[in-house]
What does this fold into?
Amino acid sequence: MTLNQKEKKTMRKSHLIVLSVILIATISSAAMAADSQPVAAPITGIVNLNTADAAQLELLPRVGAKAAQRILDYRKEHGNFKKTSDLMQVKGFGEKSFERLAAYVSVDGKTTLSSKVHTTRARKPSAKKPSPAA
It folds into this structure.
C-alpha cells in the first residue's frame, strides 16, 4: 500500500465515524422531541367547601353527585369546614382523596372553578390469568 492509499483509507474511516455520530445525534434528538409532548394547561380555580352547592362540588376531580351530597350533608350537620383537611371527616374522603383535591378546595373566598377537573390515575398492571389448555 502506498502512502496515498493509506490516507484515503483513514479518511474513509473518519467520514464513517463522523456520519455515525451525526446519525446518532439526529435520532436521539428526534426521540427526545417525541417524549416532550406539550402539556395541557392545568385548570385553575377553587371550590369553597363552605358555600358551594352540589353542582360546584361535582366539578372537583373524581367527585360525583353522591360524594357531593355527602359533603353537603356533613356541612349541614357539623357546620362550616374550619380547614380544608376537615374534608377527610366526610365518608369516602380519605388521605388520598384529599391529596388529589387539596389544590382545588378552600374554606373561604369565592368558588372560581368553572369546569370539571379530570385527572388520570395510574392503572395497576393486570395479572393475566393463564388460559385453560384445550
